[in-house]
Amino acid sequence: MAVSSPRPRAGIRRADFHSHSFLTDGDTSPTEMWNEAVALGHRALALTDHLSLDDPKPLLDRLHREAAAWDGTRFLPLVGVELTKLPARRIADVARASRRAGAEIVIVHGETIVENVPAGTNHATVECGEIDVLAHPGILAARDAELAKANSVALEISARRGHSLCNGRVVRLALEAGADLVVDSDAHAADELITLETARRIARGAGVPEKELERVLVETPSRVIRKARQH
Ligand SMILES: [Zn+2]
Ligand SMILES: [Zn+2]
């Protein structure tokens, strides 16, 4: 007899908190990314173009103008930034400046093993109460997974080539600490967005046990969306 495993409820829709448009290093417009997310049946997609120490307002204003096209629909285009390679000590104040400038989602480009990211980025991110997601945190430290739990920062399982090499470690430490996890595409083109089914396979492949899949694919995304809508 086949062993049945708990699966997320039927009718759930995917939320993705990490993607890029041609406003930074992506290939297409925000509108094209959001159109594709609608076509894939997503509930929400955050455009999180890269930001370092420059003024976040022009980027966020442009994203908000394009996002307005979905007002009154079942799709939620989230407007955000990915704080990228700024000195770790500046993360908290740039995150607050981004909120003031209209960011609904603030994520941080974590210490991936495939690029040089300033040391201390992961720690500064999970210490700061302003961040929604620590993206591709690479060689995450156990104490930082515990801080992520304490400060409700979701840790990212990445679908992106290269960044995904450390997914197994991130999942193990997040589970040990009780920290939240999300599966993000980090898409830089519309065809890099992933379906809910692909996200489920990536989570499983990274070591998320069956009983935790609903938390990763449904409950944590819902919490992040509720917080985003307060901004
Ligand atoms: Zn990144
Ligand atoms: Zn990214």
Explain what this protein looks like in three dimensions.
The chain has 231 residues and is of the alpha/beta class. It has a single domain, classed as Metal-dependent hydrolases (TIM Barrel). The chain contains eight helices and seven strands; from the N terminus they run βαβαβαβαβαβαβαα. It has helices at residues 30-39, 57-67, 91-100, 121-127, 142-150, 167-177, 196-205, 213-228; strands at residues 15-16, 44-51, 76-83, 105-109, 133-135, 154-158, 181-184. The chain has a seven-stranded parallel sheet with strand order 1-2-3-4-5-6-7. It starts with 14 loop residues before the first strand and ends with a helix. The model is unreliable at 1-5 (pLDDT under 50). Bound molecules: zinc ion (2 copies).
* Main beta sheet: 7 strands, parallel
Strand order of the largest sheet: 1-2-3-4-5-6-7
Q: Cα distance, first to last residue?
A: 49 Å
Q: At the fourth CATH level, what is the homologous superfamily?
A: Metal-dependent hydrolases
CATH class: Alpha Beta
Q: Helix/strand-derived class?
A: alpha/beta
Global geometry: globular
- Rg: 16 Å
What is the fold named in CATH at topology level?
Answer: TIM Barrel
Low-pLDDT regions: 1-5
The percentage of residues in β strands lies in 15-25%
Taken together, the total number of domains comes to 1
Please tally the helical runs, counting DSSP H or I stretches of 4 or more residues: 8
Bound molecules: zinc ion
Number of strands: 7
> Roughly how much helix do the residues carry, as a percent range?
25-40%
Mean pLDDT: 95
Run of helices and strands: EHEHEHEHEHEHEHH
Per CATH, which architecture?
Answer: Alpha-Beta Barrel
